[in-house]
Amino acid sequence: MIMPPKKQEKPTKEKKDVKKDVKKDTSAESELIEKKIKTPELLRGFKDILPVDQGKWNFVRDSIRSLAESYSYDRIDLPVLEKADLFHKTIGKGTDIIDKEMYVFTDPSNRSVAMRPEATASAARAYINHGMLEQPQPVKLWYTGPMFRHDRPQAGRYRQFYQAGFESFGADEPIVDAQMIVMGLQIFKDLGLNVKVQINSIGTAESRSAYIPELVAYFRSHRSKLCDEDKRRLQKNPLRLLDSKDEVARGLLDGAPQILDWLDDKSKEHFMKVIEFLDEVEIPYELNPFLVRGLDYYTHTVFEFLLADDEGTKAQNALGGGGRYDGLVELLGGRPTAACGFALGLERMVRALAKYDINPPQFPEPKVFFAQLGDAARRVGLGLFEEFRQVKVPIVEAAGKNALKAQLEVANKLGVKITLILGQKEVLDGTIIMRDMESGAQETVDVKKVIQLVQKHLEK
RNA sequence: GCGACCAUGGUGAAACGGUUAUCACAGCGGUUUGUGGUACCGCUAUUACGGGUUCGAUUCCCGUUGGUCGCCCCA
């Protein structure tokens, strides 16, 4: 008992040394060069979505797609790159998205282009470009894909992030606004996420231009009390004062003029109807008179989807948002067209699933493993594997492994019920071995009957 | 864009100025070449990168890159 280890020790030690020396001599140089070339690094704020996460991602993507289909929204795929101008016009100068965060560059043909920071503008552009205003209205489109904003990365905030969005063009009815909210909430419900919606109306551009001076006047009278950030807002983007996180500003908000009071009658009526519809279908919502959104094109109804119980981090708890944008198509040179839509942040949804430990429904595990030995068996196996696939018996293999042992280890890890073993002998005899993984019992059967036999065995 | 914290193998951790960087899990290979789940053995890290201090740095300092958190913004 003592002897063998001693015998082994010596050779292994020698082997070790040899190996190390060999490594140093032959590959050390190339290794060094590789390292010096720098191991590749991800761009800041960019992320790989790895196979382990795809389950949750597919859950999110599938929920969105099936909802889109049941509400008969048509899929549209829009380019990632657009003329920079498109976003300047629509999202608005003065917004952070445009001024600080957009990936803009000059392309080889000397055009100013931008990686899309969102897709509503592109959807409106497509609506105009392809004469969709001649189609039966409303035109209902949905999309999903990556968006780009050069913001400082944080949890739930990336420079490339995925959005899915729904846009309805050509309907000014309040029911459309309400339906958007219903749809959004339904997706979250399908995912098992507890999400609340906040809504507000910011009316038309005219009513806002009447309201903003009032708001500014109010806060100006309290200017000395405001924090620096809010003073800046007062000048740059007064509406943002409404969702300031500073306590002083929050305290002042109670006495501040509310945008709802400044809406014209039509806007008020529109908003009232949206709310009535929501009441009708018993959708819980929160009226948030301080909700404003960061893009210029919004009119009337605006809403945001928030995680309902967001103890812990308050940041990045908005999972999506949207609203009406009646002026957008006209702004881009189309015929005046009412429109409404919303977008969802996919990584925030995936993150919420992880946070609440919600796992997507699992698809059935394969129950049959196919082990093959030698080239002849591989050749036969190729066809057999395909036959199994056609009768929809999920079957897996590990073609990268040679040893039967290694293949059985994989089969075992997969928790498979049956392993089929095909080797040289069996190929010659036209047979195959069927092994029950629980009992370990195995029998040699006619390869032509194996599919039937496997199906029978699985039924038990 | 501003501020703070962090960075050890595929993963989670340990060491903390001092000889061959420790442990667990995963991975791969092996324990006689066609049989799994256990056991045993072996292999897998120039301590993110680049500089500096030091006789000596994973450990201290600076820069870069990346991550996280708050602000800002938003999805």
Note down, in words, how this protein is organized.
The protein has an 8-stranded mixed sheet with strand order 1-5-6-11-10-9-7-8, with helices on both faces. It has helices at 3-36, 51-70, 84-91, 96-99, 120-129, 174-191, 205-220, 228-236, 247-253, 265-280, 328-331, 346-355, 374-390, 404-414, 424-429, 450-459; strands at 74-75, 81-83, 104-106, 112-115, 139-148, 160-169, 195-201, 286-287, 299-307, 318-324, 339-345, 368-372, 395-397, 418-422, 431-436, 442-446. The model is unreliable at 1-37 (pLDDT under 50). The protein is elongated and about 95 Å long. The protein has 2 domains: 51-204 and 264-355, 2-Layer Sandwich (BirA Bifunctional Protein, domain 2), CATH 3.30.930; 368-459, Rossmann fold (3-Layer(aba) Sandwich), CATH 3.40.50.800. α2 runs antiparallel to α6 (174-191), α2 (51-70) packs across α12 (346-355) and α6 runs parallel beside α10. The chain is built from 16 helices and 16 strands. It starts with a helix and ends with a helix. It has 460 residues and is an alpha+beta fold. 43% of the residues lie in helices and 19% in strands. The structure holds one RNA strand of 75 nucleotides.
Question: What's the gist of this structure?
Answer:
By secondary structure, the chain is α+β, with helices and mostly antiparallel strands. It is 43% helix and 19% strand. The strands form three sheets. It has an eight-stranded mixed β-sheet with strand order 1-5-6-11-10-9-7-8, with helices on both faces.
